[in-house]
């Protein structure tokens, strides 16, 4: 499987090792200094904010600790604009899983780092993030295990778990309103992975908290989790989400218009079914070969006891013809799931590339760097900005792998 590079320092070392001239070393170093994202510097580290009073409303993480976010204040022309970003991090679907999660930063604010690097779409560097660099930017920490979807509780002896994603979402919004969100002029709700899925669930609700004259839009990054069968024709993804929705008590919060015609409990938890009910303008950023879904939903370990898929998962170039055909099927599922949105949405935008990756907006290298992934010579940042500010239509879809080779900064591509 191929991953977006997450450690530019290691990436830069490898580049130096493969460089045979001083000139190339110097160029690599300059690019590193200009476009690296995850070296935590004082310039991009943002302090955590605990919403202490949220606990009185039962808005708490899995372990009962207060919810949290990181806020980097906007300035200049962006002082009254807001970008809220849901953090990702998968889900827990059993009590055992959630108890383990509750003693990590994914389930407790007591285990969260006190500062968080703001890079990619969250960066305040104008050269790396030209359209949103001076907005108020908020990273909403993820500690409920259910994409901010539920409101329930589990107690058995000394074991207590709080599934309070809905309350966390509301508590953080209410905490931000008096800090300027209540007078926002432009707003974008976004998120990655499980956080990207959360944008489908909360997009229209977000608009209800903001001024009526505010321009409010939403964007999902790697959040289009498909209702697909795995290679053994089992609904692995559906079974997983069924358990998440039941454990979290989330069904009551799913779109009523969607659930009234759904065939099973978790159907409207899947973005492909929820999307048609979202009223606010929406942008979908996703790989057609999303690596999380490839590894966890299409070919989960239980379907591959002989480890036939192991090399293919580690490096796409190692996939044989039959495996590539199955991967092309995954792309077809993605394209088909978004066909109505692509054909009929008047306000929607898309960037569906053929890079084997998962989450691309939260890294400088894949968001807006000289060698970021492109479709029709447009970076992700340019495409999202063109859509948000309505400069030009922005609905881009890559050719199927391996026709597209515009995937630099994605390991092994």
Explain what the structure shows:
This protein is 31% helix and 16% strand. The chain has 413 residues and is of the alpha/beta class. The strands form three sheets. The chain has a ten-stranded mixed sheet, with helices on both faces. Strands 6-7 form a two-stranded antiparallel ribbon. A hairpin with a 2-residue loop joins strand 6 (152-156) and strand 7. Helix 1 packs antiparallel against helix 2. The radius of gyration is 21 Å and the shape is globular.
Features:
413 residues, alpha/beta, 10-stranded mixed β-sheet, two-stranded antiparallel sheet, 14 strands, 16% strand, globular, disordered N terminus
How is the topology of this model organized?
Layout: H1 8-17, H2 22-35, E1 45-50, E2 68-72, E3 81-86, H3 95-101, E4 115-117, E5 136-140, E6 152-156, E7 159-163, H4 165-176, E8 186-192, H5 194-209, E9 215-221, H6 236-248, H7 256-259, H8 271-274, E10 282-287, H9 291-298, H10 310-314, H11 321-337, H12 339-344, E11 349-353, H13 364-367, E12 374-375, E13 378-379, H14 380-388, E14 395-397
Helix pairs in contact: 1-2
